[in-house]
Amino acid sequence: MFEILFLGTSASAPSAHRGLSSQIVSHNEYRFLVDCGEGTQRQILQSGKGFKRLTRALITHGHLDHILGLGGLLSTFMRWEAIEEFEIYASRGTLERIRALLFDVVLRGKKTPMPLRLVEIKPGVVFEAQDFTVTAFPVAHRGADSLGFVFEEKSRRPFLAKKADALGVPFGPERKALVNGESITLSDGKRIAPEDVLGDWEKGSKLVVVGDTGRIDNLVEVCKDADLLVIESTYLDEEAEMAGQFSHLTAKMGAELAQKAGVKKLVLTHLSRRYRGRDVLAEAQTVFQNTVVARDFDTFTIKKE
Length: 305
Description:
- This protein has helices at 40-47, 64-67, 69-79, 92-107, 161-167, 173-179, 194-197, 220-223, 240-245, 251-261, 277-285, and strands spanning 2-8, 22-27, 30-34, 56-58, 86-90, 116-120, 124-128, 132-139, 146-153, 184-185, 191-192, 206-209, 228-232, 266-269, 291-293, 299-302.
- The chain is an alpha/beta fold.
- It has 2 domains: 2-156 and 201-302, Ribonuclease Z/Hydroxyacylglutathione hydrolase-like (Metallo-beta-lactamase, Chain A), CATH 3.60.15.10; 161-197, no CATH class.
- The strands form 3 sheets. Strands 6-5-4-3-2-1-16 form a 7-stranded mixed sheet. Strands 7-8-9-12-13-14-15 form a 7-stranded mixed sheet, covered by helices on one side.
- It starts with a strand and ends with a strand.
């Protein structure tokens, strides 16, 4: 199960009700900060989530409305918050801007109290845990060396508790061993194999965070069958020409991607101050009904039934 918390949902500049781009994606004990616009540290505090275990940041691209908050966040880590380490994952071009911001402006020769690592990433798996992966994929956005991210649980075989009960499998390490694919022997000598208590393979939940982009034709495959797709909606269709000039999407285009990729739910973010949320929603829903326009501090849970 994944959870995504929207910290900032405005495009380019903050509004009275929307901060700049940033989200936290959580899975069990893991937490990832996705983008870090100006003011993100305050949004984290206001959300009540705090900084605990927020040790990894994934940055989609190097435009200032997606990275400026890293300076304030690092400053806070140095003075007030105890954190074990901080890793920033981004493409080479994005890391160049981040390095200048953090080392030339914030640190200026000072050392951080915790390990600070800038990790260059390319399309492919960038993080892997026991039960999920994070994969980066290329995104077309004004030559900004941009990336999107897929958070996907690994396929699994559900544990059939009723079958285990009928076979006399006790609670505890025996059941854990079976889930891990190991056979066990009960106290009466009966041997139980994983196939006896595990169901058919099932795909895990899939969350796709695209970030800023000017195209959707190259994203259909990577977004295919996602349980939740998060993508920008900077313009309405009436200004589609301007959207093209600045390599952004309209609400209609985001909805078209959701429809073509067969996603289950679409969440639009990165809204321009020129539009009302309900107008953005109305345009998208003419194409893809199960659409939501994110607001700051909205939280969505992504899990399989």
